[in-house]
Design goal:
α11 (about 290-300) crosses α16 (about 415-425). The strands form 3 sheets. Strands 3-2-1-4-5-8-9 form a 7-stranded parallel beta sheet, sandwiched between helices. β13, α14 (about 365-370) and β14 form a beta-alpha-beta unit. By secondary structure, it is α/β, with parallel strands linked by helices. The protein has 18 helices and 15 strands. The chain is globular and about 70 Å long. Bound molecules: uridine-5'-diphosphate. The site of uridine-5'-diphosphate (UDP) has 17 residues, from α1, α13 and α14.
Length: about 475
Amino acid sequence: MVEMKKTLIFIPSPWIGHLNSALEFAKLLINTDNHLSITLLNIKHPGTPFSGSYIRSVLASQPQIQIIDLPEVKPPQNQPATASSLWNFMEGIKPHVKSTLQNILSSYLNSHSNTVVGLVLDFLCAPMVDVGKDLGIPSYLFNPSNAGFLILLLHLQKLQIEDLLRYSDPEMCVPGFPSPVPSSVMPGPFYTRDEEGVVGCCNFAKKFTETKGIIINTLSELERYAIDALTDAQTPPIYAVGPLINHKCHPNPNLEQAQHDLIMKWLDEQPDSSVVFLCFGSRGSFDPSQTREIALGLQHSGVRFLWALRSPPTNDNEEKTLPEGFLEWMELEGRGMLCGSWAPQVDVLAHRAIGGFVSHCGWNSILESLWFGVPILTWPIYAEQQLNAFRMVREWGLAVELRVDYREGSALVMAEEIEKGLKHFMERDSMVYKKVQEMKEMARKAVLSGGSSFISVRRLIDDMISS
Ligand code: UDP
């Protein structure tokens, strides 16, 4: 007799910071329970032209995961990537998702060996909840960020839009946060009081509550307080399943193997825990004047460094933005290395020579740094990074503050401040270091058999396959 497979339809969003953990999660589910099969719908977006080949390379060893490319839908031209433009983009994809799902369902009708038990939607794909409802398929939300960010959005969408736009208190009490959240670390649209952005974020958040469960790339040991606050009658059940980390540095179109090997060779030559790694996520870049200040700060600090230098997309040559003589000085001194616009971040953080990470505090970067026990010096730039930085420093004591409220368009952080911050950071704050090492141990235990995230995954699968 053919055993019935329970199929999950994964719809990740194509941006690397969302894809990485979603793909790891798909692999984890498949490897945990052999009743499951997965079909992944690949969304094409002109801003991420390599996502399809990236997905295929990450899943190359997982033939149980089928990949279907959705037809390309062009986002409206000349519109910045805001919550509302993303919402419209996802709305435009809905009809294609629906017809693809209908095809899958009708092919299963004839085969009798498969049944679709759920959609797993990245949180930017939350509008697809409606498609699931139309076709009678439950949706699970996949949040590649953290429980704190989720509860903040759920809290904000309950407030009146007019109040959010008029809001002038310097801080806000939010359930799940042990201390009030300063308005300076609120996500972009709530900070700038941009009506379209606020409405867009609230639209997404409303959809989150229409799901059968919310999966979060976090661990309960880190976010106990926020997860407890989310465990109420109005919020779908929460599954903390992280950290989900892609340990294999997959080929990236922006990183050649030769460059990867050069970076590793250079790190091999450095003393233990002596190098600070600077990397600001998949989209983080600074304009020439800020780049210059960073370069001078590094030069004057005396600290060894590996720097993923990336200019804004309008500037095609990163190195042109450096102070005169910097490259020659670096060559002569041998104390630093530029690693081009894409760094093999996981391999770098795993290297014994790395002693600190100047990070934009994207959630994947935070989890990766905790996994390898590398402390962070905070320099947030966009999205929910200010909130993450604030929590890392103030709530958890897991990072050292350079800035928690920097964002695109902020005043320059001057070289002297960077120099001082780097020196203090690399001298090692023993309290922060100790806490990071403790969290590293907890993170590793959480995913092992019997660990909190391991148990959560099992609970989730039971819910999925019992329907
Ligand atoms: N990343 C990388 N090399 C880079 C920049 C980013 O490997 O030069 C990876 C990083 O390891 C992480 C992801 O891309 O897994 C970025 O996710 P994160 O949530 O930290 O930031 P985002 O890019 O979403 O802002």
